[in-house]
Here is the input.
Amino acid sequence: MDTYLVTLKPRGPCASAVTSNTLFGAVCWALQTLRLVNVADLLADFSAAPHFVFSSAFPFAARDGNVVRCFPKPMITLPTAEQIYCLAEQRAKTTDRTSPRFKRRVEEITDNVKQIKNAKYVSHTLFSEICAGQWDSPRLLREWNESVCSHDDTLWLKKDLQALWGRNQKPDDLWRTTGVQRNSVDRVAGATAEGLLFYEVQTFFRRGQAGLWCLTLASQEARQWLEVAFRYLSDTGIGGKRTVGKGHFECIIESAEGVLPQIADPDSFVVLSRYLPTILEEGQQLEAEPLGYTLLPVYQRPENKFPGSEQMRAHSGRIHLFTEGSVFALQGAPRSYYGRITPLCRTNGRTIYYSGLAIPVPAKLGGAK
Here is the structure.
């Protein structure tokens, strides 16, 4: 399979995250609606021979012809308390850990640790250098505000920001996630009553300067399907609230050459998708170092595009996934994808599947082959 870059230029805000399983489901429904392929037959043997695999969608910034793509922050180990204290001693120029100057430096460094921990993304160059083993959390702290900074929930190398905004210009917010107030209308009163106000979380992108991107592995046959499917999804939207204008994009598919870092002699990998390992992978990945992950419980809601006579299930089951940015040791030669799709239930005569297929990025983070 070949790797392709899918650029999603927003036509409005997003009401939900565009994850790998969201893209997989949206494309499958597009293929079924357009009658390009029998999706039920396609999915029945998909884990053994997948035709396409998606990463989750991540932000990108574009300005004056320069494009910087953000990747999920690899889950590297946070600094220990002793490492924080040693750095505070260097900055305070004292070994007296009871002095006010030392305590102020500890507070500053602790705030920086929180920013590193809470960041969702890293800029492309920083991601490449982390995967190459050039950065760890102590170095991030040592070079904070010199080579590295935080902006828009993202850790940036300053040279990446300067490529977009110049050396002396303050960067604007490129995307923002915020609560938007909505209201319900009481059918009896015909107006909004007390307790009918609520908030929805939406993500807004700066027009013409930010959007989303993802990767897809696809066979030659599937590449043609994806071209048609994404044209359809450009009209219908992706993700939640799309019938009221959320999640609408202009979708562009092109070669992904140069997007992923090339790492020599990798010993680990970082996943760009929500990852559901096979039984064999689960035994291998969870017993080797390095290991850094977040386990996410998901209550999947099936699409109700064509309801039948049966009562539709609100949720099709619970499943646990490894999130984007999780780090695992590389066992054997690097692979183009990991994971599997799994059937969750049957409803209206159809089997509901969940995609846990993941695109990996080889890395050099201290694992053993």
About this structure: Residues 19 and 261 are 21 Å apart (CA to CA).
